[in-house]
Amino acid sequence: MAGFNPYFCIALFGAIHFHFSGCRQWPPFVYMATVAINLATGSLQQEEIIVGIDLGTTNSLVAYVHPESHQPTAINDLGRGTIVPSVVHFPADGADPIVGAEAREYLLTDPQRTIYSVKRLLGKSYRDLGQHATQLGYKVIDDNSEGLVKIRVDDRFYSPIELSANILRELRARAEHALKTPVNRAVITVPAYFNDSQRQATRDAGRLAGLEVLRIVNEPTAAALAYGIGLDPDEEKTVAVYDLGGGTFDISILRIQQGIFEVLSTNGDTYLGGDDLDRAVVDHWTATFGLPEAFRTNPHLQQQLRLAAEMAKKYLSQHDDFTTHLTDEASQNITVTLTRAQFNDLIRPLVDRTIAACRLALADAKLEVGSEKREAGHTTEPSSASHSPLPAPKLDAVLLVGGSTRVPLVYDAVSEFFGQPANNSLNPDEVVALGAAIQADILAGNRRDVLLLDVTPLTLGIETLGGLLDPIIPRNSKIPTKAGRQYTTSVDGQVNLKIAVYQGERDLVSQNRKLGEFTLTGIPAMPAGLPKVDVNFLLNADGILKVEAIELRSNTRQQVEIKPQYGLTDDQVEQMLMDSLVNAKDDVAARLLIEARTAAEQLLYQVNNFTRKNRQHLTEAELTATAAQVATVQAALAGTDRDPILKAMDELDELTRPYAERVMNISIQQAMAGKKID
Fold first, then answer.
1. Which long-range contacts (CB under 8 A, 24 or more apart) does 590-595 make?
2. Residue 100, Cα to own-chain centre: how many angstroms?
3. pLDDT tens for residues 243-291?
4. CATH fold of 31-223, please?
5. Domain 274-344: CATH superfamily, name plus number
6. Is the pTM here over 0.70, yes or no?
């Protein structure tokens, strides 16, 4: 399950960069003006229904606001339930992918073709995943250090965008079947702490599923709407929304006043959720019951263990003891047990991480509630006017969202921290989708008394001399927003200026996330310091960033939409959708083939260079095997399918890993020879 070998890249003194942005599944539709007829009632439907979608790590839902009752409703198509497991299975015979509960059944029987928790991979590079990449039952491929990860299924490669589009396509189909009308527009929710890359990836997935994504909405904001907070224009409240789902966590502090939703602060972790609670149980059982190593390496046993841990988590939310039996490779039964007290001890560090994020969100919102007052040493007496002329707003409610909030320890910890019982009166699995449906209803013009104002969760800025991040839009700035700064050149006669955009809170750009870069060309040659370059950031309501650079003396300008490194622009996505109807899929495949060939040629050059320089450290068998695999890559290059090229490259990387690491160790030993380490 390992990705491309980082040791090999280091040993070769260079990284291999390539990415793929094509779509394998081609939705059969076009955008056009239509008059919809509801076949269930026979009536003309003047207003197209806009659905709200919760694209979740573990489960996904689609909801809409009923045109007559005006109440948000989760769609239950054919009685299959409102919840659609976020699982995609690719049949071995090459048939269309299976999504949902039926796909989930293959987690045990065919784990390497069954993809789950794909939301955790959206907008992520292999470096972002770290050790988590090896904990999945399917193979995650490392394209390069900054590009989007790929998932390998047999000899085919998929991006998280394509996989998420499969889930969204299933939700869309269910909505159309249940409502008996076309569904082309949607609001999709994301965790409040999703960065620009992850938001853009979510939007691209929606577009590839045939949906015009009208808005990307933060899940906590949607949850507040679902709880009915803010729908009364005269209501004024400040609430905390604690959202712990299957793969992500975020905490948001919202102020609702006169129908306006204002996010005071947000914090969280896009890689913390119910999956991690399950992992804690897996690690405990592995250590306590001495489970064979196969439970870590065999995909079938991995999934059996993971699903048993998930079952234990759910069971212990209602009971005190859990027992189950695992079957090893020799078909021997292994009994594992867990008590609620043990489970609480295992997950307490994870729950504490969520509380730490709550503490930071409160500080950003300038709130003190519950245990915060006690921990900070404050008394319950109000401050004097001389010290606090404007009293801090009162926290009126704490709302729970996400299936993982059903865990009793989570509920108790949140209630204790905030000093009041948390509100879990709504189904935590449905609440976000219901709120998204209300937001969709707002965008449809059916509710004119509600306005949502979100914030950007991380600082946005550009790289300046010395590798420093110069902030332009600070974190927690209200969106949509626009901000800019003026810069100049540092070298006489400089005619080009590279603008690299980063996101994060650290001073050095190397410690932040790079979103993209472009070069402003055509600057008049002048002494250093004379050109004046305005760099403007425009962050729209979806949290998507546009950057514009203008040289004021010459009016030279350039504007780009900063998107993830894997790069799918809106125009590219739209073109992909149209190409599905005019047989232009072959053109896209040709472009992807060229990219794969370019990457393969780079890899072959590096491998040949490596073996030539390090023959003395390699055995004849290793050299022969490498030469044979190089020949396989070269043969694949002669073909017209990119997947065999990617497969051959992946196999070449796996083959070279052991001796690439050995050469690295030898180089380190030689460098350290004769040196004393204090």
1. 591/22, 592/20, 592/21, 592/22, 592/642, 593/640, 593/641, 593/642, 593/645, 595/18, 595/19, 595/20, 595/642
2. 19
3. 998 888 989 998 887 767 778 888 888 778 998 999 999 999 999 998 8
4. Nucleotidyltransferase; domain 5 (3.30.420)
5. ATPase, substrate binding domain, subdomain 4 (3.90.640.10)
6. no
111: closest CA among 141, 84, 87? 87
Distance CA 314, CA 322 (A): 10
What Å distances lie between residue 226 and 207, 249, 400, 424, CA to CA?
A: 25, 18, 11, 12
Residue 466 zone, left/alpha/beta (φ > 0; ψ -120 to 50; rest): left
CATH of domain 1-26+583-665: 1.20.1270.10
Nearest to 336 by CA among 316, 354, 355: 316
What is the DSSP-derived secondary structure letter of residue 339?
Answer: E
Q: Report the CATH architecture of 460-566.
A: Sandwich (2.60)
Catalytic residue among 110, 142, 243, 372: 243
As a whole number of angstroms, the distance between CA 194 and CA 481 comes to: 18
Which one of 77, 110, 119, 647 is the catalytic residue?
Answer: 119
What is the separation of C-alpha 346 from the centre of its chain, rounded to a whole number of angstroms? 26
To the query of whether residue 154 is one of the catalytic residues in this protein, the response is no
219 is catalytic: yes
Cβ atoms of 127 and 614 within 8 Å: the answer is no
pLDDT in tens, 65-100: 988 888 899 999 888 889 999 999 999 988 899 999
* Active-site position among 110, 142, 196, 219: 219
- Give the gyration radius of the chain's Cα atoms: 27
Residue 582 predicted with pLDDT over 60: no
Label residue 212 by pLDDT band (50, 70, 90). Answer: confident
Tokens of 558: 């350039």
Q: Does the annotation count 236 as an active-site position?
A: no
Q: Is 54 a catalytic residue?
A: yes
